[in-house]
């Protein structure tokens, strides 16, 4: 999965496998219907992405990018979440959803909303973004808009560069209906034999290795592009000589691409997973997108051969698959993109003198370092930490988790260098990271060949925590240097994902991580940690205990407040505890990017709860949990969202922040995010998200991400005046 092309490779697939919700009637003090539908909430998130594409105040190429993000997100939503609903229906596993409704009813609502959003998405392209690009010299043309000279030049190009790689497949008694790969773009073609008069059907796959939008040579000073499938469609005669082309249409199939491996029934997880990855390609169709001009005869054939229902057919104006706009969005036109932001090196990691070589270990020894990416550079902090550890002769061991990383990861290369230099290196590679399974298997094998101790975590659990531990010998003693983060060790996504990370030499954190790594790589069962909250055994209990304490403090008249930032808020037990806290008078602020099943602002249940969402040029990805604790704040950061899978079926870790300046920084982040002067979306008690980006006088509200980048870039190392 190309991480450059997704707003979050792990978001659209945020499905709780084997979902078994708590009994909605389990708490008699709360209304029975107190959760928003999780699937519709996800679609509401993608609608917020679409609203960014529709925003005329954003640069045109960024709007095109958001159109592509919406399309890619929705693809993964169908491949995993919709596929999961269908699987439960077809297999009889029709357990209630989190709103107490049968999956068949939820699927019907999801289908209706998805149809609505896809039509709105197509309209945003044709009526808003395409014209905005054209006004700035980037024109996506149709065949009808080309003159004869341009058509001839394109015919020459087609003959030389495209025709040789095309493979038309006939459908007749000797040629059965071909397999249609998931997410491929295809042309259905009806032809007539000029001699016999017999009509035939053929399928032509649009080559995925060619540019989705081809640039047309143009002397007018701008740039012109045409969709690849439209170009191919106008030279079908070259592919079917002697045949009369009667009709052609574009279609696209989405398949169930979820992967299921029974870890308890397999002796070799990698081999079982590789076998399942091959099966993924042949999952059943769950969505058929067709161009809106497709005739009933062709549609009937596709519906019959692909075995899809009417509700699974999405009739849309061309072009289909607007994920192809990623190519357009990469055009080098700085005036049509967001202003350039260059991450700065964390002030605490800067050397005391400008020309000195930075020493990450020395900086950490001076005090805990809280990193905030992408405002602060990943390369000069986390990456530099691992690279310095790999090269340092005093470092004896490095232990690290790898959930998703890039194909040319300097982190992995540093671990290989460390192992080859004789250091003890442990890499816990999560090969079950959805859509990154094959890439992680490849990296695991490369690490093993270099002498790295590679393990794959615990049976039945994904290891999602973001941890790195370095053991260094100093003055005859061993010291622990640790990193606990909210995001993956991925240099590419670190430039577009907002994440937090803690670098610390705290001995207790080091001992906690040592025990946790022993549990992950061996057979140790550690039940208690000092500065960490770890799932699946203790994270849920720890958070519920903190929420309950805030509830008690509020009832006793003591200072109480809860602030939580997550990607998804779904878990019923956590939500119910927040409802009870609200009823006790605790102010609760929820800052969520994606799914939120909690209903805020409901009298008698949640009137003290506010929910906000911030979307923009960076993907808000950090998870933060802040509790007032009667004036002694307990604040945690880590990798866990409030979902069943994170709390019950994953290894997750939160670390408590203790530095007063860091607690103030987290407090400032929440205050700014929840401020009415900050551009954001507000969730109402009716489940509707409303964008607030304009002040009463019509001026734009504060872009929090832009402001943070400017402020953090001006920070200076403590003690430095210039």
**CATH architecture designation of the largest domain:** 2-Layer Sandwich
CATH class of the largest domain: Alpha Beta
Mean pLDDT: 87
Helix % is: 25-40%
CATH H-level homologous superfamily name of the largest domain: Endonuclease Chain A
Could you tell me the number of beta strands? 27
Radius of gyration: 27 Å
Could you tell me how far the N terminus lies from the C terminus, measured between alpha carbons in angstroms? 44 Å
Class per helix and strand makeup = alpha/beta
CATH topology of the largest domain: Endonuclease, Chain A
Content of β-strand: 15-25%
Number of helices: 19
Shape: globular
Main beta-sheet annotation: 10 strands, mixed
What's the number of domains?
Answer: 3
Low-confidence stretches: 1-25, 261-267
Could you explain the architecture of this structure?
The chain has 722 residues and is an alpha/beta fold. The chain folds into three domains: 1-136 and 333-339, Methane Monooxygenase Hydroxylase, Chain G, domain 1; 347-530, Endonuclease, Chain A (2-Layer Sandwich); 534-713, Endonuclease, Chain A. The chain contains 19 helices and 27 strands. Strands 14, 18, 19, 20, 21, 23, 24, 25, 26 and 27 form a ten-stranded mixed beta sheet that branches. Strands 10, 11, 12, 13, 15, 16, 17 and 22 form an eight-stranded mixed beta sheet that branches. Strand 15 (466-474) and strand 16 form a beta hairpin. Helix 1 runs parallel beside helix 3 (103-135). The longest helix has 33 residues, at 103-135. It starts with 37 loop residues before the first helix and ends in a 9-residue tail after the last helix. GO terms for molecular function: ATP binding; metal ion binding; polyphosphate kinase activity. This is Polyphosphate kinase. InterPro entries: PLipase_D/transphosphatidylase (IPR001736), PP_kinase (IPR003414), PP_kinase_C_1 (IPR041108), PP_kinase_middle (IPR024953), PP_kinase_middle_dom_sf (IPR036830), PPK_C_dom2 (IPR025200), PPK_N_dom (IPR025198), PPK_N_dom_sf (IPR036832).
């Amino acid at each position: 999965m190309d991480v450059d092309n997704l707003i979050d490779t792990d978001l659209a697939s945020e499905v709780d496998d084997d979902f078994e919700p708590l009994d909605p009637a389990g708490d008699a003090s709360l209304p029975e219907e107190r959760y928003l539908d999780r699937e519709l909430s996800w679609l509401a998130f993608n609608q917020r992405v679409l609203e960014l594409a529709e925003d005329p105040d954003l640069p045109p190429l960024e709007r095109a990018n958001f159109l592509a993000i919406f399309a890619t997100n929705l693809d993964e939503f169908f491949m995993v979440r919709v596929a999961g609903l269908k699987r439960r229906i077809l297999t009889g596993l029709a357990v209630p959803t989190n709103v107490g409704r049968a999956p068949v009813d939820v699927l019907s609502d999801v289908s209706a909303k998805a149809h609505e959003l896809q039509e709105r998405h197509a309209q945003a392209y044709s009526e808003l973004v395409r014209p905005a690009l054209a006004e700035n010299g980037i024109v996506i043309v149709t065949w009808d808009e080309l003159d004869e000279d341009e058509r001839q030049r394109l015919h020459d190009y087609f003959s030389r560069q495209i025709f040789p790689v095309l493979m038309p497949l006939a459908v007749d008694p000797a040629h059965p209906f071909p397999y249609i790969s998931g997410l491929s773009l295809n042309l259905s073609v009806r032809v007539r034999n000029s001699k016999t008069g017999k009509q035939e059907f053929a399928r032509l796959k649009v080559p995925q290795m060619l540019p989705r939008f081809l640039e047309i040579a143009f002397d007018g000073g701008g740039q012109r592009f045409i969709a690849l499938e439209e170009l191919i469609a106008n030279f079908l005669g070259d592919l079917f000589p002697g045949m009369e082309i009667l009709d052609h249409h574009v279609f696209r199939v989405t398949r169930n691409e979820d992967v299921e491996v029974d870890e308890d029934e397999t002796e070799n997880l990698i081999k079982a997973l590789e076998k399942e990855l091959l099966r993924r390609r042949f999952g059943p169709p769950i969505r058929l997108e067709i161009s809106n001009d497709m005739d009933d005869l062709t549609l009937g054939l596709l519906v019959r051969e692909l075995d899809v229902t009417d509700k699974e057919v999405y009739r849309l104006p061309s072009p289909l698959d607007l994920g192809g706009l990623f190519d357009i969005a990469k055009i080098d036109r700085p005036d049509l993109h967001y202003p350039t932001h260059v991450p700065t090196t964390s002030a605490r990691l800067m050397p005391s003198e400008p020309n000195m070589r930075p020493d990450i270990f020395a900086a950490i020894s001076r005090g805990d370092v809280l990193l905030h990416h992408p405002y602060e550079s990943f390369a000069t902090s986390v990456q530099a930490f691992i690279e310095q550890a790999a090269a340092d002769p005093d470092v004896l061991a490095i232990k690290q988790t790898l959930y998703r990383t890039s194909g040319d990861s300097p982190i992995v290369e540093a671990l290989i260098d460390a192992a080859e230099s004789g250091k003890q290196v442990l890499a816990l590679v999560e090969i079950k990271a959805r859509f990154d399974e094959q890439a992680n298997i490849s990296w695991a094998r490369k690490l093993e060949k270099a002498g790295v101790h590679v393990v794959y975590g615990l049976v039945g659990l994904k290891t999602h925590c973001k941890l790195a531990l370095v053991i260094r010998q100093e003055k005859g003693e061993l010291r622990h240097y640790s990193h606990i983060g909210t995001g993956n060790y991925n240099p590419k996504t670190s430039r577009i994902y907002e994440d937090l990370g803690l670098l610390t030499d705290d001995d207790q954190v080091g001992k906690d991580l040592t025990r946790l790594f022993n549990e992950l790589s061996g057979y140790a069962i550690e039940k208690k940690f000092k500065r960490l909250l770890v799932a699946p055994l203790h994270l849920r209990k720890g958070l519920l205990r903190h929420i309950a304490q805030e509830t008690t403090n509020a009832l006793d008249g003591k200072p109480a407040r809860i602030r939580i930032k997550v990607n998804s808020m779904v878990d019923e037990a956590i939500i119910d505890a927040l409802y009870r806290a609200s009823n006790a008078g605790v102010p609760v602020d929820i800052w969520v990017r994606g799914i939120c099943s909690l209903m805020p602002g409901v009298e008698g249940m949640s009137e003290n709860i506010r929910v906000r969402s911030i979307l923009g040029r960076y993907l808000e990805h950090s998870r933060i949990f802040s509790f007032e604790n009667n004036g002694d704040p307990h604040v945690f950061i880590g990798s866990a969202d409030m979902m069943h899978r994170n709390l019950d079926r994953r290894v997750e870790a939160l670390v408590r922040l203790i530095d007063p300046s860091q607690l103030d920084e987290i407090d400032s982040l929440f205050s700014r995010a929840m401020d009415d002067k900050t551009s954001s979306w507000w969730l109402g008690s009716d489940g509707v998200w409303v964008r607030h980006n304009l002040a009463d006088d019509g001026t734009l509200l504060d872009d929090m991400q832009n402001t943070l980048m400017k402020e953090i870039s001006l920070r200076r190392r403590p003690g430095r005046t210039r």
